[in-house]
Design brief:
By secondary structure, this protein is α+β, with helices and mostly antiparallel strands. It has helices at 3-7, 19-39, 41-58, 65-72, 75-81, 105-111, 128-141, 146-155, 186-198, 211-221, and strands at residues 89-90, 115-117, 124-126, 162-167, 170-175, 178-183, 235-243, 248-256, 262-267. It is built from 10 helices and 9 strands. Helix 7 (128-141) crosses helix 9 (186-198) and helix 9 packs across helix 10. The longest helix is centred in the N-terminal third of the chain and has 21 residues, at 19-39. The chain is elongated and about 80 Å long. The model has no long low-confidence stretch (mean pLDDT 85). The structure holds zinc ion (ZN). Residues 187, 228, 230-231, 233, 256, 258-259, 261 line the site of zinc ion (ZN).
Length: 273
């Protein structure tokens, strides 16, 4: 049995390695090694090498530091290093230098008449026309293979080589080995594909938006999904705690109550004090 594999702690290394935690432990190892090295230099050097090996294999040197960094490091720092699921929507190769990059999804959708102030409450609601068009397109995309055809068409790739991979924290599309994009779930992909087909009728310069800006608008629109694009179940929102390599934080999760499909996850800002 491979000794390295036995000692390795996958929950703290590789993709799950927490950079702030690793840096803290390397600093602790350096201080300890210098202290020992002052007394007997070879021992200091050996301690440092051994410590680095332990950090490489186990993710940390001092037991409990992953928990301590989670608790005491400022959240903005941990967020910077956080390698939680990166959900970017689809990317394409088009040069987007002269496209619009910064949009405020809410303003854009409001001006385009996609959403409007609700009749009953002080909030935004989908405009009826858009809701009907969007829902019809989501229903059509649910047919077997329709999502593959629609995505291939949108990204200008061959639908025969486009494949999907579904795993715990996302839904990815590949063209051969090339990753095209990632979504929270197939339901999120269906919502985005349907909206991307419907929005040009409302947003005048939709084609002039950069890929990232489109993804922002599509993601913002998912807040308004009323029934699950995949199974037609009820869509609910709630707060939950998400744990990633470095930290655990509260998010507002929007998802399907029936099939569990995740549509959207945004950081929870907390109630105003
Ligand atoms: Zn569902």
């Amino acid at each position: 049995m491979n000794l390295v594999a036995r000692l390795r702690q996958p929950e703290y290394t590789g993709e799950n390695r927490c950079i702030p935690c690793t840096a803290t432990n390397v600093a602790i190892a350096a201080v300890l090694s210098v202290g020992v090295g002052v007394v007997y230099p070879p021992a200091g050097a050996a301690l440092f090498v051994g410590s680095l090996l332990a950090i490489w294999l186990r993710g940390y040197l001092v037991p409990g530091t992953p928990e301590l960094t989670k608790r005491y490091f400022p959240d903005w720092l941990l967020a910077y290093f956080d390698k939680g699921p990166q959900v970017s929507g689809a990317t394409d190769a088009a040069a987007d230098a002269d496209l619009r990059h910064d949009v405020d999804p809410e303003t854009l959708l409001l001006e385009a008449g996609v959403v409007e102030p609700c009749a009953e409450e002080d909030d935004l609601c989908l405009a009826d026309d858009f809701r009907d068009g969007w829902t019809d397109r989501m229903d059509a995309l649910r047919e077997a293979g329709a999502d593959r055809e629609a995505l291939a068409d949108r990204l200008d790739v061959d639908s025969a080589t486009l494949r999907f991979e579904e795993h715990d924290d996302g839904f990815e599309a590949f063209d051969g080995d090339r990753r095209l994009g990632q979504w929270e779930s197939r339901a999120a992909l269906l919502a985005d594909l349907a909206a991307a087909a419907e929005l040009p009728e409302y947003v005048d310069d939709w084609d002039r938006l950069a890929v990232g800006a489109k993804a922002q608008v599509l993601g913002g629109l998912r807040v308004f999904v009323e029934t699950c694009p995949e199974c037609d179940g009820a869509v609910t929102a709630g707060t939950e705690t998400v744990t990633s390599c470095c930290r655990s934080h509260e998010v507002v999760a929007v998802g399907c109550a029936d099939c569990g499909a995740r549509l959207l996850e945004v950081p929870y800002q907390g109630e105003p004090a």
